Amino acid sequence: MNLSARVLLPLDIDINPNSNGLPGIGELKQIVGASMTVGLILAVLALIISAIVWALGANSSNPHLAGRGKLGVLVAIGAAVVCGASVTLVNFFWNVGQQV
Prior knowledge:
Elements: H1 25-59, H2 63-98
């Protein structure tokens, strides 16, 4: 006896982001943009401070301090990349998800 369940899938669903569906979307975009700006400014500040720590550690023969400065420089650069590329990354993965 062959018992096969028939699965009905709705194949004609087409949902796209809606920029005017909720009130306050424009303000939310401004808040996110301002947050990205603050993140980039803080990443630059962290890069400057980490470079100073690295230089002080290297000039005072303190390898621990120099290592912390190097790590801080890498973290600041990574934070700047993530802040700067966040919109592009989200759009890329949105498009990948739409192709699935």
